[in-house]
Amino acid sequence: MPRAAFTVVHEIVPRFRDTDAMGHINNAVYVTYIEVARQAYWARLDRNPDYRRVPFILAHVTIDFRSEALVNEILEVGIRMDRIGTKSFAFAYEIWEKTSGRTVVEATSVQVCYDYGTKQTLPMPDDLRRRLEAFEGRALGRRS
């Protein structure tokens, strides 16, 4: 997807600890990078730093590795809402090497609306759906 298709783009500066023995960013670290992007997205959407108010849990992550990244490369993570369902919503991500624009990773995640007190899933709150659609600037129904 072109960079302009993403609602939020967040810069990631890899740390030495993110690398494997070959000097590449370790595959497991990309889950953290997309989590950081979700955090940046939520901060722009909600503007309230109290994460106890986040009404969802992570249910699923899919990552496709497209090229290697090294510790000395600056990365950018693009995130956009992919769809909203009745109890869940999905994000699409792309991670690029900043200078060349080379795609490193394409990923998706599914979050489920959740009540931490009762430990049960919830229907998508209408207010959250409206806020997400306004933030994205488009309707976000289920993808077929």
From TrEMBL:
<dbReference type="InterPro" id="IPR029069">
    <property type="entry name" value="HotDog_dom_sf"/>
</dbReference>
<keyword id="KW-0378">Hydrolase</keyword>
<dbReference type="Pfam" id="PF13279">
    <property type="entry name" value="4HBT_2"/>
</dbReference>
<protein>
    <submittedName>
        <fullName>Acyl-CoA thioesterase</fullName>
    </submittedName>
</protein>
<comment type="similarity">
    <text>Belongs to the 4-hydroxybenzoyl-CoA thioesterase family.</text>
</comment>
<dbReference type="GO" id="GO:0047617">
    <property type="term" value="F:fatty acyl-CoA hydrolase activity"/>
</dbReference>
<dbReference type="InterPro" id="IPR050563">
    <property type="entry name" value="4-hydroxybenzoyl-CoA_TE"/>
</dbReference>
